[in-house]
Design brief:
The chain has strands spanning 11-14, 21-24, 26-28, 34-36. By secondary structure, the chain is mainly β. The two termini are 16 Å apart.
Length: 63
Amino acid sequence: MAVYIPSNDYIETSGFGPFLKRTVRAQLNADGKIYLIGIRQDVPSTAFMDQPEGYPILPNMNK
């Protein structure tokens, strides 16, 4: 399953060139939902930024 991250609001970037590191910030909640966390938000979070289309990601409970 491909996941689309629409904005750099949720991606921390450090380094440069071959040492570039991009980290997507997300939080897995007890109910199984995955929320994106803004780069300026503290974790764990209980109040989330407006989530992009397709988020939060929901678990497939049919398996």
